[in-house]
Write a structure and sequence with these properties.
This is G-protein coupled receptors family 1 profile domain-containing protein. Keywords: G-protein coupled receptor, Glycoprotein, Membrane, Receptor, Transducer, Transmembrane, Transmembrane helix. InterPro entries: GPCR_Rhodpsn, GPCR_Rhodpsn_7TM. It contains ten helices and four strands. 35% of the residues are buried. 72% of the residues lie in helices and 3% in strands. A two-stranded antiparallel sheet has the order 1-2. It has a single domain, classed as Up-down Bundle (Rhopdopsin 7-helix transmembrane proteins), CATH 1.20.1070.10. A hairpin with a 2-residue loop joins β3 and β4. The termini are far apart. The longest helix has 37 residues.
């Protein structure tokens, strides 16, 4: 079940990794199901007061929930052999569908937050309202679904190492680079740039924001960035590494390097999956704090920048 035959190597997961898979995915499913269900229920209860921020957050929750529904099949495969069949490429696509939908949504949220804080008048004039947010989310899903459908169709069952993993040496380099650059590197650069500029703008504002309020906002933005890096960077970097090694697998006499990389990459897949739980923790702070600064009672004397700090604001 855990061994994968390639053209030059027979990939086998270490016993420790097999055990880790069996133990670690179940808590992710249980916790993720509870947290995401609760988050969606809260979002639906507040639908009358949805802002554009709610639209982005719901989009993120739906992407996470899609992965949660997929996990039972994944967990079952750890305990029982799943034969490679026609539906397997689509099961693989579901995993990537969730990951890239989440990545693109977080990037959109980062841009939305920066515009609201740095260019509040621009945000008001050009939308960034619910309709615009809906349109952006629909566009993101269209892009992600198209990529994943093409991905599944380009890989026949004969090219699968297992029901949940393709043979990387059968994929063209350009396709892997598209996944890495468009699916991770560019969104990461966008998130890093927008988060850094947002923090810088907040720290510069000395009119209304107290030191404690600044600290909380900067801490949450920084935590979101760290979670993104920790969850998605290892998987995407190791994907490139594994592809590079896979291209040379037929030249590796003992395949030790390929097996080691395969095991490390397998663990990073679990790390990426945990994002569906960590996002839900962010939702908790959204509704607990409304990610809002405690402003002065008279809104007429507040800087527009502060009124428009809507990264995770919900209407009071």
């Amino acid at each position: 079940m855990f061994g994968n035959q390639t053209e030059g190597c027979n990939l086998t997961l270490m016993e420790e990794v097999k055990f880790f898979y069996k133990v670690a995915y179940i808590p992710v499913f249980v916790i993720g199901l509870l947290l995401n269900t609760a988050a969606l229920c809260v979002f639906l209860r507040k639908r009358a007061s949805w802002t554009e921020t709610h639209v982005y957050m719901i989009n993120l929750a739906v992407a996470d929930f899609a992965l949660i529904l997929f996990l039972p099949v994944r967990i079952y495969s750890f305990f029982n052999q799943l034969e490679v069949w026609d539906f397997c490429p689509y099961l693989i696509a579901v995993h990537y569908l969730n990951m890239y939908a989440s990545i693109f949504t977080v990037a959109a949220i980062s841009v939305h937050r920066l515009v609201a804080v740095k260019f509040p008048f621009c945000a008001r004039a050009h939308g960034l309202r619910k309709r615009t947010a809906f349109a952006i989310c629909v566009f993101l899903w269209a892009v992600v679904v198209t990529i994943c459908v093409l991905y599944s169709k380009l890989n026949s069952t004969q090219e699968l190492q297992s029901c949940f993993e393709i043979a990387l040496e059968t994929i063209e380099l350009r396709f892997v680079l598209v996944f890495f650059i468009l699916g991770f590197f560019l969104p990461f650069c966008t998130i890093l740039f927008c988060s850094s500029l947002t923090i810088f703008s907040l720290l510069k504002d000395d009119h209304v924001i107290t030191h404690e309020e600044k600290r909380k906002c900067v801490a949450i933005i920084t935590a979101n960035l760290i979670v993104f890096i920790v969850c998605y960077a290892p998987f995407n970097i190791m994907l490139l590494v594994k592809f590079s090694v896979a291209m040379q697998s037929q030249h590796i006499s003992n395949c030790a390097t390929y097996n080691l990389v395969h095991n490390i990459w397998s663990v990073t897949k679990w790390i990426a999956t945990t994002n569906c739980c960590l996002d839900s923790i962010a939702y908790y702070f959204l509704f607990k704090e409304h990610f809002a600064l405690k402003l002065t009672p008279d809104p007429q004397h507040m800087p527009v920048t502060q009124i428009s700090l809507t990264y995770s604001l919900a209407n009071q």
